[in-house]
Amino acid sequence: MFHLANRFGTVFRFPFTVWLCLVLAVSLLTGCGSDQAQRAESSEQPQSVSTAADTSATGANTPASSGERTVKDELGHEITVPAEPKRVFAPYLEDSLLKLGIKPVVQWSNGNMAHAYLQEELKDVPKLDFSGGLPSPEVIMSYNPDLIILHTATYAANGTYENYAKIAPTYVFQNASGDVEKSLVTLGELLGKSAEADQALKAYRQKVQEAKEKLDQAVGGKKVAIMRFAAKGVSLMGANYLCGNVVHQQLGVGKSKLVENANSANVTLETLSNLDADYIFVINAYGQGTQRMKEMTESSIWKSIPAVKQGHVYEVNDEYWLGSGLIAYEKIIDDTVKLLAK
């Protein structure tokens, strides 16, 4: 029995069980008041902000932490490029890829015929036939690319871009063959190989300058015609793309008036007599122009051309003279110097 006196001196007597209940009730009331105070204090404090470490810990992927970049291709598509692409599908850009030290997961071919001048470096890379058109998305998916690069806008037409973009980020050039040096810079940026691109371009431009000096001394003021014999006809290549750009634009060798303001010009027996050139480079495109070459070179008109009479006709290697990339261009320069600056 516990005793409790009031201010009047009256003593109240409580059984032990009643006293215990009173103590427990007071404890509970005190605890509740403390929790409410803590909650009130917490609500007045500023909320914490997620840090980069918090984001990474939750598995979120951000450009800052992953190294991925968002770029816009030449058709205006915005794509997210992997930080370090490992499996690149870039048909017809094998030359430039090799200059950057990269092998694609598969290489372009026409039937079983690929870029012959690159086959030593690409001997372990499977060929993919484009002779029947662009490969289906299912075929591309089987190579598991993490980046797709299309060298021309025509490759992206008719829903191809949308289908390929579902497989991997897909970058499209308007025409990568139009300005190979510019395209190489872009590829370097996409693939994290800008230093390699800069080094390759520096070496190439030095080679061009040295060759140009030799040619200026040997054949300054002379003209060269680059004739392409193919299954569909004969054409004269201008100075705006491929080997024509190398010979006429970069090396500064003169061109025929037939392609003065044109990318190319069709050549027939009727127009052949108007060919004004001191030297003729002949290209048998993929071996498919043999018959047309025979017909034209055996004609009396061909034999009357001054360059032919002087023995200034040279058949050059179609493997790289129709190639697109610095490796091909370097070989074209070597041939031109060898043939003209004797």
Descriptive terms for the model:
342 residues; alpha/beta; Rossmann fold; 3 domains; 6-stranded mixed β-sheet; 3-stranded parallel β-sheet; 15 strands; disordered N terminus; Bact_iron-sidero_bind; ABC transporter substrate-binding protein; signal
Can you walk me through this structure?
- The chain has 342 residues and is of the alpha/beta class.
- Strands 10, 11, 12, 13, 14 and 15 form a six-stranded mixed β-sheet that branches. A three-stranded parallel β-sheet has the order 5-8-9.
- It has helices at 16-44, 52-57, 63-66, 94-99, 137-141, 160-165, 180-190, 194-219, 242-250, 269-272, 290-297, 300-303, 306-309, 318-321, 326-340, and strands at 2-5, 11-14, 69-72, 78-81, 88-89, 107-109, 127-129, 147-150, 170-172, 223-230, 233-237, 254-255, 264-266, 279-284, 313-315.
- Mean pLDDT is 85; it is low at 1-65.
- A hairpin with a 5-residue loop joins strand 3 and strand 4.
- The protein has three domains: 2-32; 65-192, Rossmann fold, CATH 3.40.50; 210-340, 3-Layer(aba) Sandwich (Rossmann fold).
- It is globular.
Low-confidence stretches: 1-65
Number of domains: 3
Helix percent band: 40-55%
Shape: globular
Structural class: alpha/beta
- Distance from first to last alpha carbon: 129 Å
- The CATH architecture term of the largest domain is 3-Layer(aba) Sandwich
Could you state the CATH homologous superfamily of the largest domain?
Answer: Nitrogenase molybdenum iron protein domain
Query: What is the oligomeric state here?
Result: single chain
So what's the CATH class of the largest domain?
Alpha Beta
Largest sheet: 6 strands, mixed
Rounded to an integer, what's the Rg over CA atoms? 38 Å
